[in-house]
Amino acid sequence: MTERLIVLTLAVLATAVCLRASTTQERVPPRRPLAEMPRQLGEWTSLGDREFDPETLAVLRADDYLSRPYARPSGEQADLYVGYYETQRQGDTVHSPMNCLPGTGWDLLTVGRSSIDPAPGRSIVVNRDIIQKGLDKRLVLYWFQSHGRAVASEYWSKAYLVLDGLRLHRSDGAIIRVIAPIRGGEAAAERNAGDFLRAFYPALNRHLPE
Known about the structure:
Layout: H1 2-21, E1 40-41, E2 44-46, H2 54-60, E3 64-71, E4 77-85, E5 107-119, E6 122-133, E7 136-146, E8 149-151, H3 154-167, E9 173-181, H4 186-204
Antiparallel strand pairs: 1-2, 2-3, 3-4, 4-9, 5-6, 6-7, 7-8, 7-9
Helix pairs in contact: 1-3
């Protein structure tokens, strides 16, 4: 853990130095607000949006966000969160939800990775964690996305932030997180989350600039 903390700290410092060294004005392509994300994604229907309190927003420091649970007629649910950062030059950077969930009473049981096919011919690697609070057990899938690139590793996302800042003069990025209840076993929850991602992923590209 100490080694990971040191590596992350160095990566953040390198990011700050490199991005500040680039004097060219950032290029932020136009995009559609996350609130305009379709409320009907295939057979998945929105259950309504959640708004964060001022304290939570102060911690997230996102320029735009969407927190919305979806459900399908068979009863399965998927809780979607997307946090978008227009610029990460001033320290408002995307960070792992695993930094936040333990602070709200969730215990982290397992940490891993999983390969998901969210669209035909497209495969991405995402973080796959299991959390629990009391008897409530859930599967968490999340990744970092910027400029059409999906990355599971927080460290690699920082490295790409430096490279894209110098090469494209952009530091925009987002985190995408899907939480599914574990009711019929972890495999069933992962299939459920995968089904939602396949319905959701095509719409995501209309709201995050590539």
